[in-house]
Each structure stands twice: as structure tokens, then as C-alpha cells.
Amino acid sequence: MAGIDWQQVEEDLNSYGCAVIPRLLSERACREYVAAYDRPDLFRSRVIMARHGFGEGEYQYFAYPLPAHLQRLRATLYPPLAQIANRWYAAMEIATRFPAAHEDFIARCHAAGQTRPTPLLLRYQEGDYNCLHQDLYGEHVFPLQAAILLSQPDQDFTGGEFVLTEQRPRMQSRAEVVPLQQGDAVIFPVFHRPVTGTRGIYRVNMRHGVSRLRSGHRHTLGVIFHDAE
Fold first, then answer.
1. How far apart are CA 164 and CA 70, in angstroms?
2. Which of 19, 103, 129, 177 is most buried when burial is the number of CB atoms within 10 A of its CB?
3. 8 Å CB contact between 63 and 70
């Protein structure tokens, strides 16, 4: 992760509402996460999307303690993203600021009763999809998150594109389809981001989802930085 161009990440987030980090995870690491899906001891809960109107497919939330690699990933991605988040909040005139270390932000979450870990693994098969949504789990929300594709497009699955929508005030929504390869991460807003318009900076509301899988199986690792109530 030392080679990540965080300036480019921030520029892409400001321009497009998302940024891709190529090959954040190795092929081996991706395979290990996919295999972990069938280890119930690693997870605190399993969600069948259709039961809740979320789409088709399923996902599992990791339990504490997180696997060591996932814990390092969460802690390492957070600090540069916190700098971006603080600049965003200053631009949107939101008083909240985020500490430099992830452990300090998690302590803030836990003090407010948000104690359940939110990193998750998602699994889709042919015909599955994820409705547009926002990952809000309590009062304390970190405004950026990451999704890492663990499967190889056109080899393990077809279809299943990552989709973002931007709901602009008094304007029609804008969609962004993000092409990813195995191991790539997409960084994107949890719920809103600042955009510069003719009258200054305003907030746009963001949602994300996954389009219908045409064939095969698709696995994704979701890295959310706030914990849940």
C-alpha cells in the first residue's frame, strides 16, 4: 500500500465521486478471502438480501477480532482517507473531524454504542444484484469506504458491475459504472460528498450497488470504517 498515489485518489474522488486503487490485494489474498466465506467462526451474522428487499445474493459481517490482514487493511487505509474526509467536511461546513488513527475513531464509535464490526464479504451468483443503498449504521459515520473485487471478471463471472449514483439537487441523477479487475479496490462516499457548482460548494447524495450477474460467482470484500449499533 506504500505505492498508492493518494493525491490521485483524492482528485478522482473530487472529480468523479470514486477512485480505483489497482491491485490492492494479490490474487492469493483474494482467493483466501473467498475461501473464508465458508468459515462461520469468522463472522457475526449472515444476511440474505431478498429477505430484506436489498436485492438478491448474500453477505456476512466479520466478527471481532478481525482477521489480522483485514485489521491491518482497515487501519492502513484509514489515515489518508481521514485527511480527505476532513477536507470534505470543512468544505461542506460540517463540524465533525476525524482523528488520524483508526483506533481512535473506533473508540469514538464504541463510546456511542456502535460496537459491532462492519467489514463484510459479499457473494453473488447468476441473477443476483445489490440494490442502490448507503451503509449507515449509527450516529458516527466515516464518509468513505472501500470495496475490493475478489473474483476475476469474464473468468469467474460476467455482469455484476459496481454502480454509483449521484443525486444532485434540482437535477437528474448521474450514474457511474466502475470497471474493476481482481484485487482492485474502489474508494467511494458512504452517503454524500462536496461538489463545486456555480454558487459554491454543495452536497450531493451518493448511493452504490451492483448490477445483475449474468453468469458465475462474484465475491467482494467491503471495508467500512465505522462500526454498527
1. 24
2. 19
3. no
The residue count for the chain = 229
Q: Residues 215, 137: contact at Cβ < 8 Å?
A: no
d(CA 69, CA 33): 10
User: Domain range spanning residue 38?
Assistant: 6-223
Around Cβ 158, how many Cβ atoms within 10 Å?
14
Torsion of CA 39, 45, 189, 114, to 10 degrees: -120
Run of H or E including 157: strand 157-159
We report the CATH number of the domain holding residue 69 as 2.60.120.620
Per-residue confidence (pLDDT) for residue 2, from 0 to 100: 67
**Segments of the chain scoring below 50 in pLDDT:** none
Is the link from the previous residue into 153 a cis peptide, with omega within 30 of 0? Answer: no
pTM above 0.90, yes or no: yes
End-to-end CA distance of the chain: 30
Closest CA relative to residue 38, chosen from 217, 183, 160, 226? 217
Which amino acid appears at position 4 of this protein?
A: I
Q: Confirm whether 229 is domain-assigned.
A: no
